[in-house]
Amino acid sequence: MFSHESSDSDSEYEEDIEFLVLATLIKKKEIKRRRYWVHPVNNKRESKGEFHCLVKEIENDAQRFHQYFRMSKAQFEEVHSLIEGDIKKIHTKFRKPIGTKERLAVCLRFMATGNSFRSLGFNYRMGFATVKIIVEQVCNAIWKNLAPIVMPQPTEQMWREIAKGFENVWHFPNCIGALDGKHISIICPINAGSTFYNYKNEHSIVLLALVDAHYRFIMVDVGAYGRNSDGGIYQESLMGKMFESSQLNVPPNKPINQNTEPLPYTTVADAAFPLKTYLLKPYSKAKLVNNNSNKIFNYRLSRARRTVENAFGILRARFRVFQGPLQVQPNMADKIVLAACCLHNFLTQDTQETQETLMDESEVSDGNGLVDIEPLNRNPSQEAIQVREAYKTYFVSPQGQVPWQM
After folding, report:
1. Phi, psi angles (nearest 5°) of residue 239
2. Which residue, 56, 75, 90, 98, could crosslink 71 as a Cys pair with Cβ 3.0–4.6 Å?
3. 8 Å CB contact between 100 and 138
């Protein structure tokens, strides 16, 4: 009899425990349930949001509009017309979608200022996650629609036009681009360990860029791990592999003077890259002692190579999101960089705008999200050495020298 009563009490006790556990789980689910479909503050977006108030006020002020978006109103409208179909959302009976122009405005403002998604969410009266999604979608649309227009696959004729620009502006014949790479700082990625940790003790992805004589990106390669050796980054990049295998429609060798042998079209780079027949780098410091011809070659090469440094400077001055570490994960950082390069080319079509941006570089803060890549020491081929010697001989000859190079 005693044992039967004890069994009944134990079962009642177990039922009570199960009930308490179930009640606790239900309570937790209720706590996690969203309190709002749309926050009351965000419901006033169309009456008090920054796009519907401030942006509408500055639409007729060309200077302030340009300062706000880093582009003119006509350029804004042109970009919008190109990407509108990819960022437009369906209007449902539940709620009205955010307009395409407002989506573009949020993305451009993020790139122009580098403000956090939370800050932009407060300014535009949007959800913080919504801002992040908008920036990512607009960056994808910009790369998809602008890249074929402002950064197409080069043809033989395009390479010849680029070489003509370098010869006319920078006095470097047969040059089809200035090559350089930059570490773009990012926050420590989730579960990445030291994969993105570079020699500057920062986490980064690498942007490799080939630039023409007018500071426009010809080709870009984004996303290499910051910890990789810089020679390896170039060798393993799609750009490096295509140059090495002659898959880029580069024209055949051409004489740089009437009385000289044909020389290959070549790119110019700094000491971080390997010397190739299609890639010239400066002589090392050890080879400059009491050797004026080597110094002259380095000077002429650096004049042509500065275009890529200027392009990075313009990119950073125009889009201040690159003045510090990108507060996003690497996958999204790649998309932001690609979109920024496309917009850079699109805006650099206007020479006056480029000059104004260069003038504004003096106002840029000391913080820098773009860091030089580390020099590389590697033995070049004999053919590459001979090509560099031929260019040096031309630069010190009466036909190839410029009056101020001494």
Report:
1. -60, -50
2. 75
3. no
